[in-house]
């Protein structure tokens, strides 16, 4: 199973749009949110499918 931003959002306890903002470095994301999302990305070994 591939990891999606939905999985990251669930683990980080935030919305999919917040994860998208962190991943794309667009819009505001608090340092705490950014840290939670980045920790979830590391935990899930997420790599973007670009």
TrEMBL record:
It comes from the Bacteria. GO terms for molecular function: DNA-binding transcription factor activity; transcription cis-regulatory region binding. The keyword Transcription applies. The keyword DNA-binding applies. Keywords: DNA-binding, Transcription, Transcription regulation. InterPro entries: HTH_LacI, Lambda_DNA-bd_dom_sf. It holds the Pfam family LacI. SMART domains: HTH_LACI. SUPFAM superfamilies: lambda repressor-like DNA-binding domains (SSF47413). Residues 3-50 form the HTH lacI-type domain. PANTHER family: HTH-TYPE TRANSCRIPTIONAL REGULATOR GALS, LACI-RELATED TRANSCRIPTIONAL REPRESSOR. This is LacI family DNA-binding transcriptional regulator.
């Amino acid at each position: 199973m591939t990891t999606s931003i939905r999985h990251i959002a669930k683990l980080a306890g935030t919305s999919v749009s917040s994860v998208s903002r962190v991943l794309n470095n667009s819009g505001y994301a608090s340092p705490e949110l950014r840290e939670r999302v980045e920790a979830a990305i590391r935990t899930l070994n997420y790599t973007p499918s670009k």
